[in-house]
Amino acid sequence: MIDIDTIVQADHRIKSIPGLVHETPLNLSPALSEMTGVNVRLKCEHLQQTGSFKLRGATNKLMSLAPETANKGVITASSGNHGMGVALAARHTGLQATVYVPENASGAKLSTIRQLGAQVIKVEGDCLQSELEAGRQANITGQPFISPYNDPGIIAGQGTAGLEMLAQCPDLDAVFVSVGGGGLISGIGSYIRQKSPGTRIIGCWPANASTMYQCLEAGRIMEVAETDTLSDGTAGGVEPDAITFSICQNVIDDKVLVTEDEIKNAMGLAARHERFIIEGAAGVALGGFLKKARDFQEKTVAIVLCGRNILLDKFLWAVS
Hints:
By secondary structure, this protein is an alpha/beta fold.
């Protein structure tokens, strides 16, 4: 696990730049509470500047680099939330960022990454090919490669969301978090497991793309076939040396798979009752809670709404 002091230091670090990383609210949802019989609080990470929690880890990692290393600029691979987080953090810290993306990446997301000041380089092939090329270029240039999740600095930054949640509501009985590579739940889980061991950490996956879930069930990292999911932010494989695997083994108390229909339903509920547009990955966490609500009657739970970055047409199709 990442120790508490490291996460506390990350919190001080990322909030030392005014107006960059926000302390997001932990809102009570009267409608969801009445509907489920649970005291439901929503951790609104979708309200971060880039629309995602990823800004936390990116900012902490970039601010942790030694000046002689940072001055070379940084390289990452992402066509989505991580890329936007690195781009904005780089702009605020005065660094140059290069983001490698797959050739079929969303034009809207690439436009946002460019607008935030990063250079975008397209790579033939899929996300894996862009990540391999980014790593190769980092080795050639000597620039640091900023992993989306497989880095202690990234995980510590994500863990600051857990620090905030316990400060906002010290008596949480459970926290529901969507899982992709495991960076978010590793950070949140590390802090809460050490600070509030009675709080249960529930990992949530789309049933169509559950690589880390399958790896945890098997007790080893392996390749897992995935199919299309609304939760594209959590889709994709797990690196063979991912440090998040062992952390997830230690911090996750329960695991739940969520169908595509359950993701759509959760996104619709957030829109109707909270007036929130959330992306599929956030719908996974809310959908996971709805499947487990009977286990937490009259308890207090937090659901991490991890992001909002979804095209409007796609969102309207999902909730229609």
